[in-house]
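So, can you check this record?

>
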Amino acid sequence: MSDEGGVIEALRWAESEGLRVLVLGGGSNLVIGDAGWDGLVLCIGLRGFQVDRSAGRLRVQVGAGEPWDEVVGRTVQEGWAGLECLSGIPGLAGATPIQNVGAYGQEVAEVIVGVHVWDRMTRSRRVLTAAECGFGYRDSAFKREPERVVVLAVDLELRPGGAPTLRYAELARAFGETSTAGPSLTEVRERVLALRRSKSMVLDPSDPNRRSAGSFFTNPVVEAAAAQVLVEQALREGLVEHAAAVPRYPAEGGRVKLAAAWLIEAAGFHKGERRGAVGISSRHALALVHHGGGTTRELLELAAEIEARVQARFGIVLRREPVLVGTP
């Protein structure tokens, strides 16, 4: 649907017919069960890119159907900081607040100031503040109540002439100390795209790992004591030579974020491992790929095997990141 009226009318029709509704953006973070979807599939095609420079700040309202990487590319070209590290993420702009997409040290929640929605419960158009969105790590109120609202547009507040974000160690190391002025937004975007490409995390028809839903698991966030137990186990069992080799990062509330990819490989899985038609990406242990001819059930069985072994080995529970539709 390319206009708000059409989206709202489709939702009303589905309600009158007693049909379930699957709201579809780009489908890049979605896993569909083998039985398919019994209901209405509503593809959001709402476009628009409006700039507001009033009140001494710069805000951009982006239609939910705008291709996300095109939005990022345009803001970088204009010299507006805030989205540069989110380059190369497939899908549409309306999906970004639902997942609170993040990568390389940035989250979209940092720049969202409003989300325009159609509230299916009150049958009204609303604009939610960032606080009302309930953002968390790869989480939001939208994700917790998936049938409550449909995203129509997103308001972003960006920083004209601002410096790029270089919180992520791998990204910062890529630039080293070659320039006292620091990299430009364009250079950071290009580097992020290169890093994502090296991990098969951009859309590329020629990439053998192209059939994936991106990262299949989120990085676990645990109490500091649990992280220390993991480090001690890794040292004791010879998985690492020194504590710093266990990747971990500070998280909110004194907790610690662990690297799911490291846990998966330390549990005995390896990149490129296959189970028939499905397997682990040859470039990134977090991506599960489908090589053609298999089933969603096989994919989820592999995911369950990974989860079980990581938990048995380290006592850490992995959480799935994609939206699972029509699956057991």
